[in-house]
């Protein structure tokens, strides 16, 4: 029985009675595999004779009966592994005629260990079962020979070239993987196993992009082997299409689709080395094929950049760091080693560290199959700019995620800001620009705050995406339209007289973002014109396209709507993507084939439909098109039972059953003529699709020389839109533009100082005495001389205190509104800040750091007025917890942060340190420790050591001449004899209040004042936190015991100087001293004069050619004028009115924020819409977002200074007026408004009626601060 089964399968041929002999052309191995698949245990149950054993001779098996194949050798194999089983039969093939095989063993031990490590990490059950079938000696993981000329031989060839790269092979409509690769596909891409004998997995071609994305996210590089034509032997040729990963996304097939091709910015490939001047870091951007080299980096700077940009899974590290070469940091104990290891595997290399870029580029070319391709270096400006923000500083002001910390970007940018705009502003803040660039950014923002014309609505696209699509010839028609729209927007900004000054200012920030030089106004506009011309010549504008890619040119009856679906499905992928004149022949062929198909279908299928209708419903017929199987037929049940007669008999004779993928469909009919016409149409449509693809790819090739210009255009659009949205949000929040102060000249030259600040030169009579910063300490301890002018010290660190001054009026934390308690202060040196718990010390430090950073980036800040010096670094150190993974205590983490600050600080740095030796004061802390059993309450170190450490840090910072604040609860530092000369003392204020029971309690005021504070309010804070009063009382008793056992301090527990630091009323210095120049008054006068004033000029009402900006509304303009009065339009002609035009592709300027507007526009259906709003920007965006989406509507808008009530009144009147004139209206209900309230005149400081606000003085309110 078994012998017959094997003969039926073709493995054996009968050779005499009862003999079974292998065919000479068949492999014994195949027979053995078949036996193994079905199991020799089951086969032994049907054996008819057990007397004989098989004999082997020259690759043949002979014996008597079926038992010749199931003898002793098989019994011995029943308990052995599958690998031994195949090895047994592999030896049977040895002989002079054995086929040639390819060596597939690993070439290096390191590569083998790499794959074994990945296999051991697989934990999914299916992946583990597949893993048992692997041969770990084979580079493919296959437990079989690799034969020449097979697909596996092609895969092996590429595996030898890329030993640590996964490989997917195109096989028809699938991408398949084998061996090691199949296991990883199942583990990380969520696919199911495909093979029984060998590990195999795969995915349909439409899912390849998502599969590679999953594998890339897991840290793998994936090589894709594509199919080509047939070779001379009739076999398919295959080639390596590319190597893809997280840093090099897969984008094939985009040109034939309508996908946007969006992908997140890939992480750079990073190389790291060390020189005598610091770390060297090379970052390679693979999609754009660029790299940037950064030198002289500190350890903290390297970590900050790695966390900002991310890094590819493989980081290249110079071997000198690992080996501990002389002059290099200790690698095993460095924080960089820990940071790098958390991001992926490390690849160590040798060579000249100063030629790091050449080594990294060589590795990149080899790893990603880019041999011979060029990588361009982008310019990295390091001169005359601040250092990048430390990661610890960034998380404390909300630039990086931190639980409980408000995000700075949420305050700087509006909620609807795009990801690209937010990303640009975040990078700007993490890497503050050069001082000159910051000044141009601020000037551009100032102009944006006052411009009255509509602004281009830039369709932002990332430059890395456009570059990769163009390089790989995968740009589709929609993306070409986006590139054209970008170029048109940039061109329009330079063409508008009102916007041209802003555009010129934005060129420098754009150059900084791209690293590309040489693009001035002339070159950029010329490139925009050339790009617009190239694209417009071939690609129709999708904004004007009405067919939406469908075959609407062919008129088809409803009875044949399935034919329309077929035509639309086949032509959607190419119609409307290239202008007809470029492919007239191909399109005409499609048109002719479609007409012929339509005529054939109407003739053959139409006859049956007429016959069915004549039957009165007893016979139902319908033309159908299956979108899934692409089948097209006539469905009619019972057609043969009622054959066609008369004139229709000919059609009935030609009808036959339709087939669907080789399977006959019941009750589905077609004719040979319809099948032939359909085939001809599909062939013509495919030819047209190929021609369209070729045209799009040729256009991408034509644009490749303009890649630098396209990058500049894309970045210019992002910069312009980001700053535009920031100014809108800043004006909404009533933030201001600070005065950026350069290093002052000689303080003895008042004229020079006045000129620097842009203020009038003061006379000697107007010169007011300067206030001392902080309070002088007793006996020269702790606070130096309180900020008086002094000579230079022996190190020449600071010639005089007061050369640089940070002056802020009405500062509030960026995450709070203007109702919060504002602070006004001035800082010229280091400040020792004391204050109770929850009094706002940490908050004021965060607020100062964020305001100074925003100002030095050219952005608006949350205060009433400010003068901010140019800082070269921003160092904000808050308390950090311990790091168990690194075996570091909390105090050790503080010491490491302090080491980094002291190593990097200069005289131009802003240093803000919050509570070294974190916690409360010693007495309250020890009292609570007596009540609780916890780990280091009053966290930090022993109090005397901590106090001494704080004093040492304060001395070091004072010696550098830097500016900043050191906040502490260690009040012992106030009584130490410190070697400081410029340190001032400030405190967070408190006040006495009734707690409701008649007992006075001290509460925090959250105001920054001069003086010092020795009270902690720890007990009050504990009660507010919900600790039971009995436990707090016990802590108070323990505190009293501590105070009785120690000598009381020289001063009272609470020492606060109530005089607040003010910019407006500087106090007098002691008599007898010479009064210095009042720089506060100078900068403040210039500040208030430089802020944007209310009112919108009307220069943009008409274009410079004199023609109206809108065509659809020109007939309504006289009614609009008559209703609102001639005063507004007269003002418009003089540049001082309230009219604004917003044409297609533009948005309202930021100056429209919080103003009442009456507006009108014409919808796409011809009807007019009249509305009123105090959020014109948001209202325009909502109108344009309704169906049809993306419709570019033109608007007229009129600002009404009387406020919202006046705008609602005029809205109702205008609707009635237009209705009476016979104008079609979309909203008639608002004409019945009769009660409009009382209008509030402009300039009263109320929201919603204009920008002519009186200076806002926030009232302190009793709220719980989020400290």
UniProtKB/TrEMBL annotation:
Keywords: ATP-binding, DNA damage, DNA-binding, Nucleotide-binding. Signal peptide: none annotated. It comes from Klebsormidium nitens. The lineage of its organism: Eukaryota, Viridiplantae, Streptophyta, Klebsormidiophyceae, Klebsormidiales. Residues 780-789 have a biased composition (Gly residues). One of its GO terms (biological process) is mismatch repair. Residues 747-798 are annotated as: Disordered. The keyword DNA-binding applies. It comes from the Eukaryota. This is DNA mismatch repair protein. Excinuclease ABC C subunit. SUPFAM superfamilies: DNA repair protein MutS, domain I, P-loop containing nucleoside triphosphate hydrolases.
